[in-house]
Amino acid sequence: MATSVAVEGQRSVNGTVSDQQTKKLTDLPTELLELILCFPVLKHVDICNVSCCCKRLHDVCHGRGKVWGHQYKLRWPRLQRFYRQNECCDWLREYKTRHRVGIQIQRTVESISKRFFTEVPCVGQVLGDSFAEIEALGMPEHFCEDELLFILNFDKRKSLTLKYYAKKILYFLRQQNILRSLKSFLEQPAEQQSALEGAVLVDQYCNPLAEVTLVGISAQLDDIAEKVKKMLRIKNASHPSLRLAQGDTFAVEDLELQRQVLWALNSVLYEQLQYKGNEFDYYNPLNSYIHQVLLRCTGIPISLSVLYMTLARKLGVQLEPVNFPNHFLLRWCQKPRGSEDIYDFIYIDAFGKGKQLRAKECEYLIGHQVTADYYSAINTTEVLLRMVGNLLNIGKKGEGNEKSYQLLRDSLDLYLTINPDNVQYLLLQARLYFHLGIWPEKVRTHKLLSFISIGGRARVDVCRLPQVLDILQHIQALDPSQHGAVGYLVQHTLEHIQHKKHPVTPEVKRRGPSEHVEVQYSVGLIMKHKRSGYNCVIYGWDSKCTMSQEWITTMRVNQLSKGANQAFYNVLVQDGTCRYTAQENLEPHSDPLEIGHQEVGRYFSEFADTHYVANEELQTRYPEDMDKTLSTVQERYHRPTAGSADQEQSKHQAM
């Protein structure tokens, strides 16, 4: 190293420092060198260069030292939670591994758009082979997740296509981990299973990108429990529940003391915190997610019951879940434990602000009589099946968009993890995959034919186990009478595989041909609907309406001034829908804004203030549209005003 340090005041006659009094940088103590090399301005490349200078600096920059530990923590701060404080680790090796994972993840995500652009962009289909590629890396999953989060958190307006597919991969990765946790949870003895933990796992699986944790949910409930204790202190300052610390388990035996706890719980939950049943938007899936119930203070009977039961247990009162039809309840025993007489219980309606009911009074909630069996307590697994069943029914009633399909798929995955032999839902799952186009791409044709011909008893040989066929085989084994439905789906799977061998080349639409002359607008332009007022962005067009006559009649296209004989545009709408709109109903937006649609990244790579930039795949489909878009944008939004034009003219005259 050329850098040196001189002792002050020890100079030669000519003012230079003598060689004998010079100290090199490498003579500094190791601790000081590490401090210097940990300056934030130094990057990993600088450390590599420094370590190559000499043996002394190479030793200071060893893999387990502070320098590489600092570089690792500086570049990937989110990963610190995976290491113990002051853990001795080969930071250089960790850095290299994380760097390699980042490069591979970037390559994988970048390749997805080219492979899946023309097909239905559902999570399962996109991730079939892509997830296998990530698994093949053999790297820690938290490295993969960290790189995906890095992509998602990069400049909000750029790399939209990369973000679109990174989000799908992250969704899938997290779901696989949650599913493993759910399976482990279900393997526990019934008495060790917590309804709250199960509800959190359901919540996490349906919302894998949200930061929902059991620790976080439990902390919120602990806060509510502390509020209940304060209320309880007003009623009975010496109540035994007040002596409970967080995490303690204790059962209050005295019935009057239990009644005091439930009074305080109702006061806090329904009066102070204003929790209530969501009667006006009952079928909103958010009502079933515990973190949303806590956030919005509203839910449905089962989600509110899980919270109520958990809070009561924290305060020493044991309540049991009751699978009452159409209205989930809790029961509170009024007699010594072990009684199964339905009249020995008070039934609590958590949806109805904790109202306490006698056995036959519960029937007023549903408007008809039920047998005694419906008043029995159920275990945690049955609670989860009821909760997931609610989500499944919401998904089945959905609007047929990606969001409702995703809910249906997620709830089916959960239900069949808990109850894997339900033939009805297995068949529904197979039909859903069939509808979404989640196909086995590597199935051997003769094995498929064999599977059909012998009633599904053959074992289908696949390179990567295909989900549809695996489900169908399971159905056939459980219920041979379903052979007709199974054979139908397998036959169509085979036809799809044959079709995939000869894919149809997508139409390339140029603006030159005479039939496209009347197409005024281009992909990427941000538009406003003249009649409905919604904001949208164009991602495709046809020179004339290509929908069926039935659609044209239903949508009253013939009532338009130009009817179906005008350009129609595929647009992504701000409200999350996709629409097919006539040219005469659209106009360029006067003040372009970002369109908050989940599919924007599938078609566009960037938001450029006044328009969206089509990604490579969309530009291949519409090769001349971006020039048209830029021309329109320049003309509408960047045209000089009269004042600025006069100023420019005056400036030139002055010169």
UniProtKB/TrEMBL annotation:
Molecular-function annotations in GO: DNA binding
Name assigned to this protein: F-box only protein 21 isoform X1
Domain of life the protein comes from: Eukaryota
Organism name: Betta splendens
CDD domains membership: F-box_FBXO21
Domain Hemimethylated DNA-binding residues, every copy: 518-615
InterPro entries in alphabetical order: F-box-like_dom_sf, F-box_dom, Hemimethylated_DNA-bd_dom, Hemimethylated_DNA-bd_sf, SirB1_N
